[in-house]
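We both want to read discrete structure tokens more fluently, so let's practise on a single case. Would you supply a protein for us yourself, any chain you care to pick? Would you write everything just below, so we can both look at the same thing?
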Amino acid sequence: MQDIVTIVGNVATDPTQGRTTGGAPVTNFRLASTHRRFDDATQTWIDVTTNWYSVAAFRGLAENVTASLRAGDSVIVTGRIKIRAWENNGKQGTSVDIEADAIGRDLRWGTSNYRRASRASSDDGARGRSAAQSDGSERDRTQDGAEAVVEEEMDVDIAWADPALSRGGDVPSMALAGEDASASR
């Protein structure tokens, strides 16, 4: 049995893509989840602790993560957690790894422009289909044999979720990772 977790945090390192020994795409990044609390004495939010996770995404999710995320992005990650001990050059430690099932942007702190890959249907429905491209689009062959990129765009614009607007000033992105949105309003 594997435990499923959902972590809200910030991408701490730019995602790096590689391949498994079987040839499947894999993308890795570090995730920081900072827990905060309100300090009544100073009337400010203070960082209590930061938990660090190593996240791995495979196949299509890996390609979409590489094309979509950068260090500093606020995300929500759901996946299977694995805790393991490690030793390297006489140092020992514990690593908390997440094999991601789903990754999305945390829209409390910004907006997103979502682009979903879809397949165009040709007359016979089976001609010229190819796998999804790394930019999230798909390529289909038209009746004359030319390739056409097919994308469906959905705009998500929720300016009220911008922390700078809702609090009246700039807020560091790493500090927001574990903050409870209802407590800050």
Remarks:
- Confidence is low (pLDDT under 50) at residues 119-185.
- The CA atoms of residues 15 and 29 lie 5 Å apart.
- DSSP finds two helices and nine strands in the chain.
